[in-house]
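idk why but the lab printer keeps eating my pages so im just putting this in chat instead. protein + coenzyme A:
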Amino acid sequence: MSNPFEEAYARSINDPEGFWADAAEGITWTKKWDKVLDDSKAPFYRWFAGGELNTCYNCLDRHVEAGRGDQAALIYDSPVTGGTQKTYTYAELTDEVARVAGALKAEGVEKGDRVVIYMPMVPEAAIAMLACARLGAIHSVVFGGFASNELAVRIDDAKPKLVMSATCGIEVNRVLDYIPLLDKAIALAKHKPDACMILARPESEGTITNVKHVDWASASAGAAPAACVPVESSHPLYILYTSGTTGQPKGVVRDNGGHAVALKWSMKNIYDIDPGDVFWAASDVGWVVGHSYIVYAPLMQGATTVLYEGKPVGTPDAGAFWRVIADHKVKALFTAPTAFRAIKKEDPKGELLKNYDISTFKYLYLAGERTDPDTLKWAEDMLKVPVVDHWWQTETGWPIASNCMGLHVYPVKPGSPTKPVPGWNVQVLHEETHEPVPTGQIGAICVKLPMPPSSLLTLWNADQRYIDAYLEEYPGYYKTADAGMFDEDGYISIMARTDDIINVAGHRLSTGGMEEVLSSHPDVAECAVIGVEDQMKGQLPLGFLVLKSGVTKEADEVVAEIVALVRQQIGPVAAFKQATVVQRLPKTRSGKILRGTMQAIADNKEWKMPATIDDPAILDEITEALEGVGYGTARKD
Ligand code: COA
Ligand code: AMP
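predcted complex ->
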């Protein structure tokens, strides 16, 4: 007969309500649901309709009540602050979160209010998220690598009552003062929060001038601990903005109930993590991985989560990950392949690994971008544990495809994240006929509706955009915007995005958003941004600029201004450092820029002359320009 994975998968597809009702027993509800799946307002599906719960209670209080109060809940490890380490037990974390929630309440934050969290990787970032969840307030974490302008866009969309932040973030070699960034964002935004609650870090000081400044430490020390507020299952837990095809990011809305059920289920069944195990997601709370697997899922499972303020290399060296695993007895690490490429580059033979005892380490999970076979093999050879490439998106909140370590371990096929996870009815569809394509053929990867719990409810204040962006093109399906294929064993491969999203060091970025910044420069008439292959970061953005006639500046000068502008408008995370000036852009006869062809030339891949190209000669100019900046046949790697 079949294995536990196959049984779980079949049941999740044939009897989703029964499957997820069983999984929901893992969560404490203050009111049991009336209906497991409410499809009365499809395509706006709701899981556990009528049910009520509190996510923070499920992450913290209930473990204390069950006698786990003295167990480590969160370990903070910070090489960038001289090696700070701090452990919070479940009891301590519950108290701290309750007091911070009390401080939020004292500032008038209530159920349904939005709170923007712009924080470095300190325990208070997780505490802030959990404090919002405790009150039923909706948090929206903004990654610290985004500039004021991006923060302002999110403030205007989410309209927060309060912003929670710190005086600074710390990168490898610099302290980033947040106060000027925040003041500028608030000045730029039309919506003004009532106050900013600021964690004073010893590395930097400052006071918010544009709105009320609330000092985190004194406000929470003086606050009465707040109780957990039960909320409806479909009440939003958070909004997380992610790149769309324009500069206006998409506010992915996650519910409380479905999210709790799916994440709790994933910890044992996908990640093989039990209560008391130490789980480390080396990501950032600004990304979905950080939300799900630094904060919510490990705590729901009663495991210990590691919150790491550092990098895989440079803090201080390429042995940092092994040091953290050894120091905290980590069972499983979750990171992006780019982190392993960075380690491999600095320490190809894994010499630094010999300095550490990593015998507790059982699994490496990689996501955010495809795990290239070289990196997979290197990690397997070094660590001698299963290396699991798994695929997911901000929109889903948990993996769509993975080798499920808690159910059945399949042989690994390099380049594939194995099979769709229970709950996900994944189909590869033909772009024109919308019918499933035969095995082995590439098509649009779609998920049959309804999607399993934890999938996005909608986009914040943008139901129609949700439908247009994800549901319209393939009726009855969610479009992942990834292209790929199934093989004869049911393994899926994720090949490429079908939109203009690129993946830089595991960070999802919109080339359309960058093009908007480039076109705002007064000397630029037209532009295009493509993602070019990069050995370390997977992809890097590269800009093409057509200057307005009459511009007398040197090309280098305009490029330098453009690079500075993207850093200022989007932030350092865009990693936009290269652009080239061209006379014209290659287009189809209907005026569409041929970005795919430019990308193939840049990556020195085979390409065909597009049948609809307007003027083929332009591609010669582009080829020359690309060679001038080290791409195309001039690539060194
Ligand atoms: N706040 C402010 N700036 C930040 C930041 C933050 N939280 N995070 C990154 N940046 C800055 C970096 O300092 C860098 O600035 P620079 O242009 O002055 O050098 C820029 O944004 C680009 O960052 P990044 O692309 O991350 O490059 P890096 O060289 O700093 O680090 C890696 C490269 C591979 C080590 C790093 O990207 C990494 O660890 N990635 C894997 C883990 C991960 O976060 N995955 C995300 C989802 S799972
Ligand atoms: P994000 O929303 O930032 O998590 O980015 C999601 C996108 O990253 C997906 O749509 C994919 O394009 C890509 N991605 C994430 N994980 C993988 C993976 N394991 N293999 C291939 N691509 C991935």
